[in-house]
């Protein structure tokens, strides 16, 4: 895993994974079976987590709260990214000049 090896390969799309469990979960995306659907817009989801995130965004529920400034977020990844603004951590360096940033700049 530390060597970034991805020995598990999807036979459908050739996407590679570090763990067999991730490949198994990914294979559901190629299936016609969608076990979760939104009652409002009828959008269907393969994974429960994607469905739950969709519902939170649709209902404007924001359960992830910044302990520093109380700003709220619908997705944990957005809170995690936001927390960098309150720290000195700047994990994204520019490949050209080396300047570092709290978020990825494209």
UniProtKB/TrEMBL annotation:
The C2H2-type domain, residue ranges: 8-35, 36-63, 64-91
Cellular compartments annotated: Nucleus
SUPFAM superfamilies in alphabetical order: beta-beta-alpha zinc fingers
UniProt KW keywords: DNA-binding, Metal-binding, Nucleus, Repeat, Transcription, Transcription regulation, Zinc, Zinc-finger
Superkingdom of source: Eukaryota
PROSITE patterns xrefs: ZINC_FINGER_C2H2_1, ZINC_FINGER_C2H2_2
Keyword ATP-binding found: no
Protein name per Swiss-Prot or TrEMBL: B lymphocyte-induced maturation protein 1
Native organism taxonomy: Eukaryota, Metazoa, Ecdysozoa, Arthropoda, Chelicerata
Gene, per the UniProt record: blmp-1_1
